[in-house]
Structures are given as C-alpha cells and as structure tokens.
Amino acid sequence: MSRIMYYGYRCYSKNHEPLGWLYTFDCGREYAHINRDFELCKRWKTQRGAAKHFDDYNSRWQFKSQGGYLKVEVMPEFTEPKSAAKSNQQRWNEANRDKVSQSQEKYNQKRPVLSFRPQSEILEWLEEERYIDNGKLETDVALLNRKLAKLMKLEQQGY
User: Fold this and answer.
1) What pLDDT, in 10s, does the model give residues 37-56?
2) pTM of the entire structure?
3) For the chain, how big is the Rg over CA atoms in Å?
4) DSSP H helices in the chain
5) Angstrom distance (rounded) from CA 18 to CA 134
C-alpha cells in the first residue's frame, strides 16, 4: 500500500470554520464534508488538477452551505484503499508476461476476432431484431452470435 499526497477541497463555513473535506454522493449531485475515509473525498494528485474544477465545486458548495466556501489544500496523508493495490493475479501477470501472451495467442487462435462492415440494409434489419432485456439493449456481439447460431441451425435442417 502506498502513501500519496493529494490535493482536495477543504470545506469552510461562512464563519471561516473548517468543516472537513468535500465529497459527493448521489451521482455527484449531493455535496457533504467528511473528516475520515479520505478515499471518498474529491482529490487530485496536483494542485493544478484541483484548481481546474474549483470554481464549479466552490459555487455549488456556497449554495449548499449557505455562504461557506472551499479552499484547495493538501490533504492529510492516508493509505490507498486495497482496490488501488495490485492483486496477486496482477503481480503474477506482470512477472509472467510471456505465459500470458502465449495463452492470449492460443485463445485468439481458437476464437478469432472478425472485422467486417455489413451493408446498411443489414444494419437496419439487425437493429430491428435487437432484443431489449430489462430496458437494456442487446450488445452487438450477443445479437450477431444469436443470429449466426439461428442461421447455423437452419442450414443444418436443410433450409
């Protein structure tokens, strides 16, 4: 686990009292401050990166806090969460790049990636045939695999 210095937005009240560090939730629409769990906070590796978005965040915080303000400051040091550390699989892959590339090559030989440009009429037809499952459109891969499997069955039946 590594320690990295970050810049963040320190939240202040309109009376110049430090409240904590800015974080967002609910898809970035809600703003709050926190004094722990710094990995949740808005943070940047450079002061320039933090300054780039400062005006937008500051104006939103001023509205939310009814007159408070933000400052770009160096955050307290904290240890990166485990998700940022490399997993055992990632370390093994880096140490054995030749085996990984051999396995990938073998996989690609069995299942090659095909690239083609279907005619516009076929694309229109495929869009009409695309399934919608739980409000999500079927992916191109799933659609093409489904249609090719259906064609293969029809040809095997003698059509």
Assistant:
1) 767 777 788 888 888 888 88
2) 0.45
3) 26
4) 47-52, 54-64, 88-95, 97-110, 120-129, 140-156
5) 46
